[in-house]
Amino acid sequence: MSMRINNINSPAAYYSKAQEPAIRDNYKKLSSGKKINSAKDDAAGLAISEKMLSAINKANKEIENYQDEKSMLNVSDSMYSGTNDYLMDMYSQAVRSSSSLLSDDDRQVLTDYMSELKKDAASMLETTRFNEMKVADKNAAKNLPSDFDISTIKDSINSFNAIRSKDGARYNGLEHRIANKEAEAINTTAAVSRIADTEYGSAVSELNRNRTLETYRYQMQNRQMQDANNSVTGLF
């Protein structure tokens, strides 16, 4: 009578079992696209990449804030442009009113018209909102002309043009900040990728190597089992 002995404690069986975690890690890296899926993969690399990801998120949020500020400045510029239109109309009427050919009644009509223009300009400055916030500076309405003298209206126009020029410089500054933050986010993302992302060529090669070792060790286990069985069979 013959006996079969399954030598499950052979070195080949042990090494084959030990190879399974490495193969699972290879599959995980390939499926997730990340070579660092937990702290055990690379504790230092994980800490560094997480810190970089936090910096990227911060940069992206700052970019969103700058974009919102640019949108607010666009609304502001449109408001001041409208105010300037009112002032230019007032300036034209003031020049017209200075004509010696007009009667006092004619001048009164023009004055009443300019008063309405000033009210509309003041209303625009007061009611224009962005995200429920008032756009115009609290002192902006003070730049409207106190009377309808030509020089006073001209000074008012210059005051609002100065505000628009300042906002324009601020807008351009925001564009530079956005460009810098975008470059920061892109370069930091590239650095994180080098640390944490899977290099597919290397990962596939590692997987194939581990699978080859597993196959070899499985074959060695079978051979050892066959040799053991043959030895036992020869005893009977």
Alpha-beta content class: mainly alpha
Number of strands: 2
Helix content: over 70%
Radius of gyration from the alpha-carbon trace, in angstroms:
40 Å
Number of helices: 5
Strand order of the largest sheet: 1-2
Oligomer: single chain
3D structure, described in words:
This protein has 236 residues and is mainly alpha-helical. It has a domain at 36-197: f41 fragment of flagellin, N-terminal domain. 77% of the residues lie in helices and 2% in strands. The protein is built from 5 helices and 2 strands. It has helices at 11-32, 43-97, 104-127, 150-196, 200-233, and strands at residues 129-130, 133-134. It has a two-stranded antiparallel ribbon with strand order 1-2. Strand 1 and strand 2 (133-134) form a beta hairpin. The longest helix has 55 residues, at 43-97. The radius of gyration is 40 Å and the shape is rod-shaped.
Reconstruct the topology from this structure.
Blueprint: H1 11-32, H2 43-97, H3 104-127, E1 129-130, E2 133-134, H4 150-196, H5 200-233
Helix pairs in contact: 1-5, 2-3, 2-4
Spell out the key features of this protein.
mainly alpha; 5 helices; 77% helix; two-stranded antiparallel ribbon; 2% strand; 236 residues; f41 fragment of flagellin, N-terminal domain; rod-shaped
